[in-house]
Amino acid sequence: MSIHRLTAALFLISAVASAQTSDLEKGKQLFLGMCSRCHGLTGAGGEGPNLNRPVLADAPDDNALREVIRDGIPDRGMPRIRRFTDSELTAMVVFVRSLGRSAGAAAHGNAVNGKVIYQRQGCSSCHTIAGAGGILGPELSDIGAHRAPDYLRQAIVEPAAALPRGVMPVPGRGFDEFLPVRVVTQTGQEVDGVRVNEDSFTIQIRDTSGRLYSFQKAGLRQLDKQMGKTLMPDYKGKVSGSDLDDLVAYLSSLGGAK
Amino acid sequence: MKTLSTFAALILTAGGVYAQVPYQRIAAAQSDPATWVTYSGNYQAQRYSLLDQVNRQNVAGLKPTWIYQMRHTGIVETSPIVVDGVMYITEPPSTATALDLHTGRPLWTYTPDIPKDVIIIGSPPVNRGVAVLDNMVYYGTVNCHLVALDAKTGIVRWDTKVDENKKGYYITAAPLAVEGKIMIGISGAETGIRGFLDAYDAKTGKRLWRTYTVPAKGEPGSETWGGDSWQHGGGSTWVTGSYDPELHLVYWGTGNPAPDWNDETRPGDNLYTSSLIAVDPANGKIKWHFQFTPHDVHDWDATEIPILIDAEVKGRQRKVVTMANRNGFYYVLDRQTGEFLTAVPYVKQTWADGLDAKGRPFARRDADPKVEGTLVYPAIAGGANWWSPSYSPKTKLFYQAAREIAGVYYKGDAEYKDGTAYTGGGGEVKSGDQAYGAIRALEGTSGKLKWEFKLLTPPLAGLLSTAGGLVFGGAEEGNFFALDADTGKLLWELQLGASIRANPVSFAIDGKQQVAITAGNSLFVFGLP
Fold it and tell me: Count of domains in chain B?
């Protein structure tokens, strides 16, 4: 190889490397602006799944990842944030792949014991897993695929700070889900429950016993939508230490998340 | 109504030709309220019906007269035209259909060949309706053709290519028929088109003039564009304008400059984007312009409906044009001169620290889009958008379906390539419980809020006011409703089963008043039993 060729080859290698570095930097900037709120600043996840894993279930290869970033997964709460140019997409794919090579925020704890804690604490009276359980709170059958361990931990000890929101087709994208509502009718009847659906004129509520109500808003004496609140009890102090780790590990294992 | 029947009878007998809609009949639309002969009901674009048979006392008794389900589905934004026993609608994206007014049964339908690789960037593939003139029906297609159909059979009389769809030009607006001309606006600023307003000979389809909304180098206004940015400067004309037959001026709103959210290539005010232009229909010359949002960086299209009102403003009888602009302000301008008279915010806005004496905003540079996002009110669809407001000469109120919602504006890369997105970023909408909508009644000449009726979700549907003292509107959740035009009190509402994304119209069948609206993929006609 002549000196010239060698120089040319070295130049090429360094050009490719610097293109990747600039993609990485650019991708990081875009990620921090648009993705970090749900996926965390380091990709460890939160309201969105943990991206610190080599294989992403919905994006096994770069093309699939490109499509997910471009179109979102609206049915499961990942929005299509904005239109991207090809080079922006490339940069984001490079950056998200780099997250997959970093250490995962794996759930510590023993999932088998976590399942025991789940039963002992009576979680199944309100939540359903694999067809069995109550309906007052969200179904958890594949919660581990959608929510990262830190988010699940917070949802247990401080549930009002991690409200489920904006993913389900009913009551509609962006609306608070399982919103506690208190209603007093003109005849003085009081109903406490969660909002099932709502429009400008009517509201549908399911009470704690599972009974469904439908009201014309104009006919109500009181309609109190308890924004920022939840019917889920706070488990701070009730589940802690290794029990909490185990419970988080169990929930994280649901849906095949690693 | 007696004079109307006489007028209709004259039309029927003159020459024995049925279904003739001469220009004079459109200009005199208010004398024949049984019809709905142009996009906004009349040239003043007031979307107001003089019919008062359905009123405050009996509106709660409205029942379906018939329902038509679209054969071509999607997002339906059509505003029907009704004349001489026929309703003319469009179905998404580019089908025109004539329905028997008595039954809703189709009389004919026409669907052109739309190429599989048609380029539609910047909106869903929608169409807002047809125009009628004499014995023809006119509409635009998503591959950017203007089509003239025989009103009785749907046979194609002519089909003119307006511009290259390969470069991103497409049509969603209903045309405006004025004095033997068909005026049509185009969409496509999100691909970096150079916008224009066109007029075609109604009989032949030959183009009579083209007025660019972005001046070329050396033309007046070109100094407001940096470098060659004007070549891909945007300025779509994607909603139908209004017309003053006495002043002989057409008023047409223009859209955002391109790229939308990355302004690096286009220093300057970027005339005539995000503006209202007053155009002489004889030659297309711009008589005056008013730019609502100079150097727009939020996609504040000024393509909202410009409504013409004659009223006393600041102690003087004036001919004014009003607009509830996407940027959150309600404007009143003198429509002879373009002079700015007044403007007030009608929704929460955080991008401008008010306006100067000439109506130019003090834009906040900290509200500009950023790579990491900037939270701004209103959200990307604006306080208002393509859906029509309504003005009642009876209450002197301007009714607007308004959106109270924040958005995050992102700046991104902008690379021009024919027929691809040239937006330079985008926006995320903060929907959900923190957002809401309202039907707002503003004093037409001042913009002062008279009343409001709150909606759970920011609406995407237009309004109709009537001489019966009613305002009809639609909700995202599918409720069609009637409010008292004086007070905003709810008088009637019905769940139609899908989002309403269209404008209501009113007309009569055999002397009985009807109100029509589309929800989801169905068109509903309501009347009293």
Answer: 1
Hey, are the CB atoms on B430 and A32 less than 8 Å from each other? no
Mean pLDDT by 10-residue block, N- to C-terminus, for chain A (258 residues)?
56 62 90 87 86 85 94 84 91 92 71 96 96 94 89 92 77 88 96 96 95 96 95 93 95 74
Q: What CATH number should be reported for the domain holding residue B372?
A: 2.140.10.10
Q: What is A180-225's CATH number, 3.30.1490.20, 3.40.50.10420, 2.30.30.100, 2.60.40.3140?
A: 2.30.30.100
The stretch B200-212 carries a mean pLDDT of 98
> pLDDT of B25-52, one tens digit each?
999 999 999 999 999 999 999 999 999 9
Closest CA to A239 of A144, A162, A132, A152: A152
> For domain A111-162+232-253, which architecture applies?
Orthogonal Bundle (1.10)
Sign of dihedral through CA atoms A134, A135, A136, A137? positive
Residue located via tokens 């995962």: A104
As a residue count, chain B comes to 529
Give, rounded to a whole angstrom, the gap between the first and last alpha carbons of chain B.
Answer: 20
Q: Are B387 and B462 in contact (CB under 8 A)?
A: yes
Q: Can you tell me the distance from the alpha carbon of A188 to that of A191, in angstroms, rounded to the nearest whole number?
A: 10
For residue B459, pLDDT over 70 is answered with yes
Told to judge if B299 belongs to the known catalytic residues of this protein, a careful annotator would answer yes
Q: Report the gap between the CA of B187 and the closest CA in chain A (Å).
A: 17
- Domain containing B41: what range? 2-527
For the complex shown, is ipTM > 0.85?
yes
CB B153 within 8 A of CB B108: yes
Q: CB–CB of B126/B521 below 8 Å?
A: no
Catalytic one of B244, B260, B269, B299: B299
pTM, rounded to two decimals: 0.92
Element (H, E) at B308: strand B307-313
| pLDDT (mean) for B69-84 | 97
* Cβ-based neighbour number of residue B58 at 10 Å: 13
Q: Check if B493 contacts A (Cβ < 8 Å).
A: yes
- CA dist A134 to A76, A213, B331, Å? 22, 18, 55
CATH numeric code, A3-100: 1.10.760.10
pLDDT at B66: 98
When pLDDT is averaged across residues B303-332 and rounded to a whole number, the result is 96
Residues of B in contact with A41 (CB under 8 A): none
Domain-by-domain residue ranges, chain A? 3-100, 111-162+232-253, 180-225
Say whether pLDDT at B3 is over 60. no
Q: What is the pLDDT of residue A173?
A: 78
Q: What are phi and psi of B122, to 5 degrees?
A: 120, -15
Sign of CA dihedral B23, B29, B34, B38: positive
